[in-house]
Protein backbone atom coordinates (compact mmCIF):
# COMPACT_ATOMS: atom_id res chain seq x y z
CA UNK A 1 0.00 0.00 0.00
CA UNK A 2 0.91 3.67 -0.19
CA UNK A 3 3.44 5.13 2.23
CA UNK A 4 2.03 6.81 5.35
CA UNK A 5 0.08 9.97 4.68
CA UNK A 6 -2.66 10.87 2.18
CA UNK A 7 -2.08 11.32 -1.54
CA UNK A 8 -2.19 14.87 -2.89
CA UNK A 9 -4.10 15.14 -6.19
CA UNK A 10 -3.36 18.24 -8.26
CA UNK A 11 -6.02 19.12 -10.84
CA UNK A 12 -8.59 17.14 -8.86
CA UNK A 13 -11.59 18.65 -10.67
CA UNK A 14 -10.27 17.68 -14.13
CA UNK A 15 -11.06 14.59 -16.18
CA UNK A 16 -8.11 12.55 -14.93
CA UNK A 17 -7.59 14.14 -11.51
CA UNK A 18 -11.19 13.47 -10.48
CA UNK A 19 -10.81 9.87 -11.68
CA UNK A 20 -7.68 9.53 -9.51
CA UNK A 21 -9.52 10.66 -6.37
CA UNK A 22 -12.43 8.30 -7.06
CA UNK A 23 -10.10 5.37 -7.67
CA UNK A 24 -8.06 6.08 -4.53
CA UNK A 25 -11.29 6.20 -2.52
CA UNK A 26 -12.33 2.79 -3.88
CA UNK A 27 -8.92 1.43 -2.84
CA UNK A 28 -9.33 2.86 0.65
CA UNK A 29 -6.47 5.35 0.24
CA UNK A 30 -7.11 8.85 1.67
CA UNK A 31 -6.42 11.79 -0.62
CA UNK A 32 -6.30 15.57 -0.54
CA UNK A 33 -7.89 17.16 -3.61
CA UNK A 34 -6.00 20.33 -4.53
CA UNK A 35 -8.27 22.86 -6.23
CA UNK A 36 -8.09 26.55 -7.12
CA UNK A 37 -11.51 27.49 -5.73
CA UNK A 38 -15.12 26.43 -5.60
CA UNK A 39 -16.84 23.32 -4.28
CA UNK A 40 -15.01 20.18 -3.10
CA UNK A 41 -13.75 17.84 -5.82
CA UNK A 42 -16.03 15.00 -4.66
CA UNK A 43 -18.28 14.20 -1.68
CA UNK A 44 -16.24 13.00 1.27
CA UNK A 45 -12.88 13.91 -0.28
CA UNK A 46 -10.62 16.18 1.74
CA UNK A 47 -10.09 19.42 -0.18
CA UNK A 48 -7.28 21.93 0.00
CA UNK A 49 -7.78 25.22 -1.83
CA UNK A 50 -4.71 26.64 -3.58
CA UNK A 51 -5.79 30.09 -4.81
CA UNK A 52 -2.40 30.93 -6.35
CA UNK A 53 -0.10 28.53 -8.23
CA UNK A 54 3.10 29.42 -6.37
CA UNK A 55 5.83 27.24 -4.89
CA UNK A 56 4.94 28.37 -1.38
CA UNK A 57 1.21 27.89 -1.84
CA UNK A 58 1.56 24.47 -3.45
CA UNK A 59 4.12 23.30 -0.88
CA UNK A 60 1.67 24.23 1.87
CA UNK A 61 -1.05 22.21 0.11
CA UNK A 62 1.29 19.23 -0.39
CA UNK A 63 2.35 19.27 3.28
CA UNK A 64 1.80 15.97 5.08
CA UNK A 65 1.49 14.01 1.83
CA UNK A 66 4.19 11.53 0.91
CA UNK A 67 2.75 10.81 -2.55
CA UNK A 68 1.14 12.97 -5.21
CA UNK A 69 -0.51 13.00 -8.62
CA UNK A 70 0.44 16.05 -10.68
CA UNK A 71 -0.48 17.55 -14.03
CA UNK A 72 -0.46 20.99 -15.64
CA UNK A 73 -3.21 22.99 -17.32
CA UNK A 74 -2.71 23.48 -21.04
CA UNK A 75 -1.78 27.13 -21.10
CA UNK A 76 1.12 28.96 -22.72
CA UNK A 77 3.13 29.08 -19.48
CA UNK A 78 2.49 25.42 -18.61
CA UNK A 79 6.20 24.59 -18.34
CA UNK A 80 6.70 27.34 -15.77
CA UNK A 81 3.69 26.09 -13.81
CA UNK A 82 4.93 22.51 -13.91
CA UNK A 83 8.40 23.40 -12.70
CA UNK A 84 6.87 25.40 -9.86
CA UNK A 85 4.78 22.38 -8.83
CA UNK A 86 7.81 20.08 -8.95
CA UNK A 87 9.82 22.45 -6.75
CA UNK A 88 6.90 22.56 -4.30
CA UNK A 89 6.84 18.76 -4.13
CA UNK A 90 10.49 18.72 -3.06
CA UNK A 91 9.95 21.55 -0.60
CA UNK A 92 7.03 19.71 1.02
CA UNK A 93 8.95 16.43 1.34
CA UNK A 94 6.78 14.44 -1.06
CA UNK A 95 8.65 11.28 -2.02
CA UNK A 96 6.65 9.58 -4.81
CA UNK A 97 4.96 11.32 -7.73
CA UNK A 98 2.83 10.19 -10.66
CA UNK A 99 2.82 12.77 -13.47
CA UNK A 100 0.37 13.00 -16.35
CA UNK A 101 2.27 13.54 -19.60
CA UNK A 102 1.42 12.84 -23.26
CA UNK A 103 1.87 9.92 -25.67
CA UNK A 104 5.53 9.22 -26.39
CA UNK A 105 5.11 9.61 -30.15
CA UNK A 106 3.92 13.18 -29.67
CA UNK A 107 7.09 13.83 -27.68
CA UNK A 108 9.38 12.02 -30.12
CA UNK A 109 8.02 13.99 -33.09
CA UNK A 110 8.47 17.25 -31.16
CA UNK A 111 4.95 18.57 -31.54
CA UNK A 112 4.14 21.65 -29.47
CA UNK A 113 2.40 19.54 -26.84
CA UNK A 114 5.26 17.05 -26.93
CA UNK A 115 7.94 19.68 -26.33
CA UNK A 116 5.97 21.04 -23.40
CA UNK A 117 5.66 17.66 -21.73
CA UNK A 118 9.19 16.56 -22.59
CA UNK A 119 10.53 19.57 -20.71
CA UNK A 120 8.44 18.72 -17.66
CA UNK A 121 9.22 15.00 -17.78
CA UNK A 122 12.93 15.88 -17.80
CA UNK A 123 12.54 18.43 -15.01
CA UNK A 124 10.78 15.90 -12.76
CA UNK A 125 13.34 13.17 -13.53
CA UNK A 126 16.18 15.48 -12.47
CA UNK A 127 14.71 16.02 -9.00
CA UNK A 128 15.18 13.95 -5.86
CA UNK A 129 11.80 12.25 -6.22
CA UNK A 130 10.62 8.78 -7.21
CA UNK A 131 8.56 9.57 -10.28
CA UNK A 132 6.28 7.60 -12.58
CA UNK A 133 5.22 9.22 -15.84
CA UNK A 134 1.98 8.23 -17.58
CA UNK A 135 1.79 9.09 -21.28
CA UNK A 136 -1.76 8.48 -22.57
CA UNK A 137 -3.18 8.70 -26.06
CA UNK A 138 -6.20 10.91 -26.81
CA UNK A 139 -8.97 10.91 -24.19
CA UNK A 140 -12.39 9.50 -25.06
CA UNK A 141 -13.71 12.46 -23.05
CA UNK A 142 -12.74 14.72 -25.96
CA UNK A 143 -15.82 13.30 -27.69
CA UNK A 144 -18.13 14.84 -25.09
CA UNK A 145 -17.90 18.19 -26.84
CA UNK A 146 -19.26 16.57 -30.01
CA UNK A 147 -22.16 14.79 -28.33
CA UNK A 148 -24.81 17.26 -29.52
CA UNK A 149 -23.61 17.19 -33.12
CA UNK A 150 -23.58 13.38 -33.09
CA UNK A 151 -27.15 13.39 -31.77
CA UNK A 152 -27.90 15.45 -34.88
CA UNK A 153 -26.04 13.01 -37.15
CA UNK A 154 -22.51 14.34 -37.68
CA UNK A 155 -19.00 14.33 -36.21
CA UNK A 156 -16.41 16.80 -37.48
CA UNK A 157 -12.65 16.60 -37.08
CA UNK A 158 -9.46 16.79 -39.15
CA UNK A 159 -7.81 13.41 -38.61
CA UNK A 160 -8.65 11.83 -41.98
CA UNK A 161 -8.18 8.06 -41.84
CA UNK A 162 -5.70 8.32 -38.98
CA UNK A 163 -6.29 5.89 -36.15
CA UNK A 164 -6.11 6.70 -32.45
CA UNK A 165 -5.89 4.39 -29.44
CA UNK A 166 -8.57 6.39 -27.62
CA UNK A 167 -8.46 5.87 -23.85
CA UNK A 168 -11.03 6.58 -21.15
CA UNK A 169 -9.73 9.12 -18.64
CA UNK A 170 -11.22 6.90 -15.93
CA UNK A 171 -8.76 4.17 -16.94
CA UNK A 172 -5.88 6.65 -16.72
CA UNK A 173 -7.02 7.71 -13.26
CA UNK A 174 -7.24 4.11 -12.11
CA UNK A 175 -3.73 3.41 -13.41
CA UNK A 176 -2.37 6.39 -11.47
CA UNK A 177 -4.22 5.32 -8.32
CA UNK A 178 -2.91 1.75 -8.62
CA UNK A 179 0.66 3.06 -8.67
CA UNK A 180 0.09 5.48 -5.81
CA UNK A 181 -1.68 2.84 -3.70
CA UNK A 182 1.03 0.27 -4.35
CA UNK A 183 -1.33 -2.26 -5.94
CA UNK A 184 0.72 -2.12 -9.15
CA UNK A 185 4.53 -2.22 -9.47
CA UNK A 186 6.33 1.11 -9.71
CA UNK A 187 7.69 1.57 -13.28
CA UNK A 188 11.30 2.30 -14.16
CA UNK A 189 10.41 4.09 -17.41
CA UNK A 190 7.51 6.25 -18.69
CA UNK A 191 4.40 4.26 -19.58
CA UNK A 192 2.48 4.90 -22.81
CA UNK A 193 -1.18 4.23 -22.03
CA UNK A 194 -3.46 3.27 -24.91
CA UNK A 195 -7.04 2.14 -25.23
CA UNK A 196 -7.87 -1.43 -26.30
CA UNK A 197 -8.33 -0.69 -30.01
CA UNK A 198 -7.37 1.69 -32.80
CA UNK A 199 -10.21 3.83 -34.15
CA UNK A 200 -10.54 6.50 -36.81
CA UNK A 201 -13.04 9.28 -36.29
CA UNK A 202 -15.04 7.56 -39.03
CA UNK A 203 -15.12 4.42 -36.87
CA UNK A 204 -16.21 6.50 -33.89
CA UNK A 205 -19.04 8.06 -35.91
CA UNK A 206 -20.30 4.71 -37.23
CA UNK A 207 -20.18 2.96 -33.86
CA UNK A 208 -21.71 5.87 -32.00
CA UNK A 209 -24.45 5.91 -34.62
CA UNK A 210 -25.17 2.22 -34.02
CA UNK A 211 -25.25 2.89 -30.27
CA UNK A 212 -27.60 5.87 -30.75
CA UNK A 213 -29.77 4.00 -33.22
CA UNK A 214 -29.31 6.41 -36.14
CA UNK A 215 -26.59 7.17 -38.67
CA UNK A 216 -23.75 9.50 -37.73
CA UNK A 217 -21.51 10.63 -40.59
CA UNK A 218 -17.93 11.76 -40.22
CA UNK A 219 -17.12 15.11 -41.82
CA UNK A 220 -13.39 15.44 -42.39
CA UNK A 221 -11.94 18.93 -42.70
CA UNK A 222 -8.35 20.11 -43.09
CA UNK A 223 -6.25 20.90 -39.98
CA UNK A 224 -6.20 24.62 -40.91
CA UNK A 225 -10.00 24.54 -41.22
CA UNK A 226 -10.24 22.86 -37.81
CA UNK A 227 -8.00 25.57 -36.37
CA UNK A 228 -10.32 28.28 -37.72
CA UNK A 229 -13.42 26.46 -36.45
CA UNK A 230 -11.96 26.17 -32.94
CA UNK A 231 -11.13 29.87 -32.89
CA UNK A 232 -14.71 30.63 -33.94
CA UNK A 233 -15.93 28.48 -31.04
CA UNK A 234 -13.87 30.61 -28.65
CA UNK A 235 -11.04 28.16 -28.04
CA UNK A 236 -7.84 30.06 -27.10
CA UNK A 237 -5.33 30.33 -29.95
CA UNK A 238 -2.69 28.31 -28.08
CA UNK A 239 -5.07 25.37 -27.63
CA UNK A 240 -6.52 25.64 -31.13
CA UNK A 241 -2.99 25.38 -32.53
CA UNK A 242 -2.25 22.30 -30.43
CA UNK A 243 -5.45 20.53 -31.50
CA UNK A 244 -4.90 21.30 -35.18
CA UNK A 245 -1.28 20.12 -34.99
CA UNK A 246 -2.33 16.88 -33.29
CA UNK A 247 -4.97 16.28 -35.97
CA UNK A 248 -2.40 16.78 -38.74
CA UNK A 249 -0.05 14.37 -36.93
CA UNK A 250 -2.79 11.76 -36.61
CA UNK A 251 -3.42 11.95 -40.37
CA UNK A 252 0.14 10.88 -41.15
CA UNK A 253 1.30 8.46 -38.42
CA UNK A 254 0.52 4.82 -37.79
CA UNK A 255 -0.50 4.49 -34.14
CA UNK A 256 -0.33 0.68 -34.31
CA UNK A 257 3.32 0.83 -33.27
CA UNK A 258 2.45 2.57 -29.99
CA UNK A 259 -0.23 0.14 -28.79
CA UNK A 260 0.67 -1.16 -25.32
CA UNK A 261 -0.69 -3.53 -22.69
CA UNK A 262 0.13 -1.30 -19.72
CA UNK A 263 -3.52 -0.64 -18.82
CA UNK A 264 -4.47 -4.33 -18.40
CA UNK A 265 -1.17 -5.01 -16.63
CA UNK A 266 -1.78 -2.23 -14.11
CA UNK A 267 -5.50 -2.81 -13.63
CA UNK A 268 -5.93 -6.54 -14.20
CA UNK A 269 -8.61 -5.86 -16.82
CA UNK A 270 -8.91 -4.50 -20.32
CA UNK A 271 -9.35 -0.80 -20.91
CA UNK A 272 -12.83 0.49 -21.65
CA UNK A 273 -14.09 0.18 -25.20
CA UNK A 274 -15.95 3.02 -26.91
CA UNK A 275 -19.40 1.58 -26.22
CA UNK A 276 -18.61 1.26 -22.49
CA UNK A 277 -17.63 4.93 -22.45
CA UNK A 278 -20.80 5.95 -24.32
CA UNK A 279 -22.98 4.02 -21.87
CA UNK A 280 -21.21 5.62 -18.90
CA UNK A 281 -22.02 9.04 -20.39
CA UNK A 282 -25.46 8.20 -21.77
CA UNK A 283 -26.97 11.30 -20.17
CA UNK A 284 -24.72 13.40 -22.43
CA UNK A 285 -24.84 11.39 -25.67
CA UNK A 286 -28.48 10.27 -25.47
CA UNK A 287 -30.32 12.45 -22.93
CA UNK A 288 -33.79 11.37 -21.96
CA UNK A 289 -36.62 13.14 -23.76
CA UNK A 290 -38.51 15.67 -21.60
CA UNK A 291 -41.86 14.53 -20.22
Question: How is this structure best described in words?
Answer:
The radius of gyration is 19 Å and the shape is globular. It is an alpha/beta fold and 291 residues long. It contains 13 helices and nine strands. The longest helix has 16 residues, at 237-252. The protein has a domain at 7-137 and 167-194 and 256-269: NAD(P)-binding Rossmann-like Domain (Rossmann fold, 3-Layer(aba) Sandwich), CATH 3.40.50. The strands form two sheets. Strands 3-2-1-4-5-6-8 form a seven-stranded parallel β-sheet, sandwiched between helices. It has a two-stranded parallel sheet with strand order 7-9. The relative contact order is 0.14. Helix 1 packs across helix 7 and helix 9 (223-232) packs antiparallel against helix 10.
What percent of residues are in strands?
A: 5-15%
> Class of the domain at 7-137 and 167-194 and 256-269, according to the CATH hierarchy?
Alpha Beta
Stated plainly, the CATH topology of the domain at 7-137 and 167-194 and 256-269 is called Rossmann fold
Structural class by SSE content: alpha/beta
Kindly report the spatial arrangement of strands forming the biggest sheet. Answer: 3-2-1-4-5-6-8
* Approximate shape: globular
Specify the helix fraction band: 40-55%
What is the straight-line distance between the termini?
Answer: 49 Å
Major beta sheet summary = 7 strands, parallel
Rg, rounded, reads 19 Å
Amino acid sequence: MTESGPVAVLGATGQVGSAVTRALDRLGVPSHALIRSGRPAAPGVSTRVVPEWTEEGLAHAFAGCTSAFVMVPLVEHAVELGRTAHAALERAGVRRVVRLSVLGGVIDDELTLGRLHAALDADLAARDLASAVLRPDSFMQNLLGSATSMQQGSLTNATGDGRMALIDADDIGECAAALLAGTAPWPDTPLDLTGPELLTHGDVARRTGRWLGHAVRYEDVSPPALHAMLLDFGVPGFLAGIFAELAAWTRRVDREEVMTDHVPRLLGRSGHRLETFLQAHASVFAPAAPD
